[in-house]
Amino acid sequence: MMRGRPGRVPLQFLPDEARSLPPPKLTDPRLAYIGFLGYCSGLLDNAIRRRPVMLAGLHRQLLYVTSFVFIGYYLLKRQDYIYAVRDHDMFAYVKLHPEDFPEKIRKLMVKFLKNSIQYVEISKMLVPFSLIQLFLNFVERVFVISKVYINLCVNTLRLKWSP
């Protein structure tokens, strides 16, 4: 029975392949959250030891924050590596089995855009140029942009959650 990927080295936290990935940004909100957890753990430590919670041991609170951010940085590197390996395997499977993943026909959006543009052209002929015309142009653009955005969201959700 095979466990894990072929060539996997047990008990290795971050393989050498992870060096080719870009490092996590220091402004990553996940790192800020982990640093905040470190600050809260420093406050909790003060509360457990019956010290003034906010003022006692500022150096200790800073130590908690930096150590949590340091550990969180490497956890994020590992998470990014695991996701990159998973994505690589998934795309390789899709390349090897194209019959399981047929190309989607995207005629519906083209038909929709043609119909909406024809409708707007007809409405432009009926209404003289005025504020109503500007409003119709605005509504047309918002309508088209919202439909394109909704279609993109639906397609990405289909890609993410398809078996």
TrEMBL record:
TM segment ranges: 60-76
Alphabetic keyword roster: Electron transport, Membrane, Mitochondrion, Mitochondrion inner membrane, Respiratory chain, Transmembrane, Transmembrane helix, Transport
Taxonomy, superkingdom: Eukaryota
Chief localization: mitochondrion
Keyword Nuclease: no
Membrane topology: Single-pass membrane protein
GO annotation (BP), single: mitochondrial electron transport, NADH to ubiquinone
This protein's GO CC annotations: mitochondrial inner membrane
Localization of this protein: Mitochondrion inner membrane
Keyword Mitochondrion: yes
Coiled-coil positions: none
Family per record: Belongs to the complex I NDUFC2 subunit family.
Name listed for the protein in its UniProt record: NADH dehydrogenase [ubiquinone] 1 subunit C2 isoform X1
Organism: Pteropus vampyrus
